[in-house]
Amino acid sequence: MVSNVISRFCRDRRGNYALMTVLAMVPIMGGLAVGIDFTEMSRQRQATQNALDAAGIATGQRFRQGGTDEEIKAYAKDFFEANLGPVDPANTQFKVFLPEAAVGKETLRLTAELRYDPYFLPAFHTILERAGGSKGDTADIKFNTRTEVRLKNTLEVALVLDNSGSMDDNGFGSGEPRIKLLKEAAKELVTALSKQAIMMKQVDKPVQFGVVPFAASVNVGPDNASADWMDKTGVSPIHHENFDWAGSMSFSQNSNKYAQKVGDVWYARGTGWGTRKDKTITRFSIYDWMRRRVPIIQGGKIVGYNYASIASWGGCVETRPYPYNVTDDPATEAAKETMFVPMFAPDETDNTSSSNRPANNNWRKDITNSSNDAKRQAYMPKYFLDNDEETRTYGLGEGPNASCTTTPITPLKDVTTTEGKEAVNNAIEAMVANGATNVPEGLAWGWRVVSGGAPFTEGRPDTERGVDKVVIVLTDGANTYYTPDSVRAQEYSGTYWRSGGNDLAGTKAIYSAFGYMKPFNPAYTHGRLYQGVTNQISKTNFVNSEYGKALNEQMASVCGNAKQKGVIVMTVALDLSSSNDAEKKQIEGMRACASESRFRADPNDPSKGAKLFWNATGATLSKAFKEIADELSNLRIVG
User: Is residue 146 part of a domain?
Assistant: First the structure.
């Protein structure tokens, strides 16, 4: 039946079949053209969207690495066009909208307009025209595509926490020691931020915390003794400022065991040094070469002696000379002042003052008859006597490690991992309260912890975008540096002197991170504490109040420099009273040090952000840290 119809159609010579065929071909060919073009058009549109999405992710990563806007836009365009596949790049118009600095504008937007040239639609239009139809609109078909990438800001936070002795006092409105309240609040902060960070699965190390305990100094960790940024050869101008190598260990004094300076470096010369001959003499070598005699007892009798270490370096470093004490400049031997010098508290004179006050840190027997107490204190052979009858060892906070009382810095750790979170919490829990208050030194090391360069390199590069580097500083007291007679001395000759020690050597200060105010071999006119401060401070007046003013100025300099480099500074004053002049100045300095919030307006001036400063008491400390957690949460986009 069907074959007969087809046979008749083929044999028919009349025009009606031809006309009907032509008319039928219009919708058939039109449908075919539209189908093919629709399929290809959809394929090209999807390819454009895929290329745009891929370019968005890649450009977001490139944006974090830094570079000029032009470089990033060129990178995005190249990446987009390389992934277009079947689409001719000439048929697209590509645009990049980089994130703006304003809050809420942390998105990267890419758009592309695709112009599609149909394959068969012009032919379909010709068929329509020949069939008596309208040619219609032959304009290009255009599609708009876009992609938007939310840049999830990563966080790098240094907890710079006061570990001075007053942190053992009970917090106001609380029956608990401040140090305990601080530990609880700090660990709650870490927990809160770590929970949010887990949501950012596609970002590597989204939230990192480091811990910088500080008191009179900062402990960078004894494991860093061999680090490149440590002064291992003694080239820094402050390395030997309290040592009398030239006078007490000259060739004329002892040709068999003397010190010789070659360039900036001191060497052990003479056969009396034994295996140490020709090695460099530094603070590290003094630690290593000091020995105490240990008797060998057999049958209740001393049959000989062995020698053991008196002390090892505890990990604390001195403050670098100005201006490097208030910067994160890298340490290089080419710039000798930038190197970090291990703390070594000299053994002070055995002599007592006319009021029978001892020196504050007398831990080694003097072996010189000199009547000059400065020379007695700087006399170097006393450190290298193997036959010395010293019987004890010295740990943190005593002997050569005096004023080094804190636990070491914990570098940045990824708190999204169990190991990282535990490391940070363990570091917080290990803190102990002991020593004076040196906020600028703690702040400077907090900045160095989050900085992308050495000494600590766990932070992302400073040029990487989308990274919030934050330093949270808490203190419960005014900045302090002490004269020798203003604090209690050590136990001496069976008497515990609470009224202070003597300053027969004329150092004008307890040895601490800034060293003595008057070192034996002064590298500068004044002690480093007075370097870089204004003339409002009497640099010839060596009293605690002037020292406090100088520390406040040093703190302001560190704060200003860190904020200028993009570091967000949050400050907490704990139990400070505005009725106390020194504490009032500390409150004002901490407030001025703080950065402005990106999210909360200053109630007194809506054009400015609220200061990231909390004046807390023991009773409100936990609340203050929760508010800090809220602020840090807003610094990132999660989801």
Answer: yes
